[in-house]
Structures are given as structure tokens and as C-alpha cells.
Design brief:
Blueprint: H1 3-28, H2 31-37, H3 42-70, H4 73-87, H5 97-125, H6 131-160, H7 163-169, H8 171-187, H9 208-223, H10 227-237, H11 245-270, H12 275-282, H13 285-291, H14 294-322, H15 328-356, H16 358-381
Helix pairs in contact: 1-5, 1-6, 1-8, 2-5, 2-10, 3-5, 3-15, 4-5, 4-8, 5-15, 6-7, 6-11, 6-14, 9-15, 9-16, 11-14, 12-14, 12-16, 13-14, 13-16, 15-16
Length: 382
Amino acid sequence: MNKKTALRFVLLLGVVSLFADVTYEGARSITGPYLAILGASAVVVGAVSGFGELLGYGLRLVSGRLSERTGRFWPIAIFGYAIQMLAVPLLAVAGNWPLAAVLIMLERIGKGARKPSMTVILSQATEEMGHGWGFGVHEALDQLGALTGPLVVSAVLSAKGKYQLAFATLLVPAILTLVLVVVARFVYPSPGDVQVSPTRIGTEGFPRTYWIYLAGAALVGAGFVDFSILAFHFQKTSVVSASWIPIFYSISMGVGGLGSLVFGRLFDWAGIKILAPLTLISGLAAPLAFLGGFKLALLGTALWGFGLGVHESIIPAAIATIVPTERRASAYGLFTAGYGVCWFLGSALIGYLYDLSVPAVIVFSVAVEMLAIPFFLRAARE
């Protein structure tokens, strides 16, 4: 695949991700308040969001190994998209928080099933154009969808005030996602020569740098406050109105998209060490979002999106430069599984701490994320 063809393919996958993000990020922008309306507490909201991430990230370990052993990257990816895209509109008919929680976690499962396969496919396409730039372009389109989805949801809530109608509206981009991913499969059936490795499913192909980087990313995941908790806080304290909460989320996704585009380029130039200052900046998100009024809460949410976008784009780019091609599916799966376990444990603890003390949440979040910086610097030296 030459650079021109690779760019077209990356852009097509970016459009697929755009509509996918309109769907599930639009939903995620209001799941916290929606669960609260259905009777869930802060602990439940934190546990549901965290456990959903745990399932999604943990499943990547299995789906990554399966795709690596079978080489059936496209079928596994399309299957995951189907689960994810169908779960979101079904939230419109969830009449209680346990059922809504199941659908929220099912959406994460769908993403977990398809993510390693799509990342390997994308990593092959970015060999010629630069991993940081390729993943940055893809993430920028991804974040454009994540920006648009919450705006659509906010418009529906402002006009009708019904969460159920907002979820039902997301059926349209969900269908477009499924159509486009099937088109991509037939237009570009083999974006790169991915080797199938039926026997090597252990960790012997992963260098020391991989494990150091994983430790740093896991700490970031543990300290990262899920947006559902931020949205729960905004609604509970009335710092942000119900119709503005998805707009806050949309802005955070826009900032994340710009960050991924810029810092994807910087990653190709500077490597993993670029994560040290970026983590320091994004660590300010929690104190600003929890302690500030409307404007500071907006700034904190924007920094939250900045941190999410940067890590979402640099993680796959970094692994593509650390791990050999034939081991990447397992590497992505194992990496994101560890990241997801720490995200779940951190989210559950943050939800528990929130009911006790908001300052305790801030101290925990900032401290754990700052602990990740030495690991990123060490990985860069390695």
C-alpha cells in the first residue's frame, strides 16, 4: 500500500469512526445523568462506567489473540461494531438502571471485541505515512464524531427534554457506521500483510519498554475520572444544566481531536517522552472540573478531553513502534486489558470517594496520574 492509498484508507476508517463516535460518545455524554434519573447512586455510576471499561478492555486481550491466531481481522471487527452500534439505541427502551447498565456495558464489550483488529489493520496502513501522523489523523476524525454526537443529543434534549428520544436518534449514525465498515472491508480487503501467528500467543515478543510503558498508562487509567462521574457531579451541584452537560462533553472531544492530531505528529518526532508534559497538563482536569464554577468546570472538562485524546492516539502509535508486526494484536489486547483493569479499579474507588469527599477524589486522581510520568520518561530512555 503506497502513501496515497494508505491515506485514503485511513480517511475511510476515520469516517467509520466518526459515525461510530457520534453514536456511542453521544450516548456516553448523558449516561451519568440518565442513570441518576433512573435511580442510580454515585457509587453505581462509577462502578458501571468502570466495569464497562474493564469488560471492554479485558475483552481486547481475548479478541486480540483470536484475531492474531486466525488472521480474521475484518470479520471480528465487523462483529464488534454490530454489537456496539445496536446497544446504544436500545437505551431508549431501558426502563430501569440495571437494564441501562447492561446495555452500557454491552456497548463497551462491542468496542472491546473490534478494537484490536481495527488497530492492527490501521497500523498496517500507517507503516508508510508514519504511525503517529496516521493514528493522529484517524483520531482527529474519531474525535470530530465524538464532538458531534453530544451536540446532537443536547439539541434533542433542549427541544424535547427526553433522554429516550435522544438515544433513539442515535440509531441513524449507528446504521451509517455499519454500512461504511462493510464498504471498507470490500474496498480494502487486505490493507497490509499481517502475519498470522497460531502458536505464539505468550508475551515473549514484548520488549522491556512495552512493560514500562504499560505501567505508566495503567496509572493514568486508574487516576482518570470517567466523564459519567463528572456529569453526575455537574447535575448534582447544578454547576452545569442538563442540556449543557453533553455540550461540555462535545467540547472535550473537540479538544481531544485537535490534541491527537498535533501530538501524533510530535510523537513521530519526540517519541514516548512527549507523554510526560501532556500528562502533567491533563492532571489539572479533576481540580478544575470539581472545584470550579461554570467556566472552570468547562476548562477542566476540556483538559479531560485533551488527556483522553492524546492517550487514545499515542497508545497504538507507541506500541506499533515497540512491538513487531506479528505480535501487535496480542500486544494491543494485553495492553488495553491492563489499562482497563486499572480504569475499573480507579473508577470504582473514585465513585466511592465521591460520596465521602470531593477533595479526596481530586487528591487521588492527581497523585496517581503524576506517578505515571516517571514511567513514561523511563520508557523513553529504554
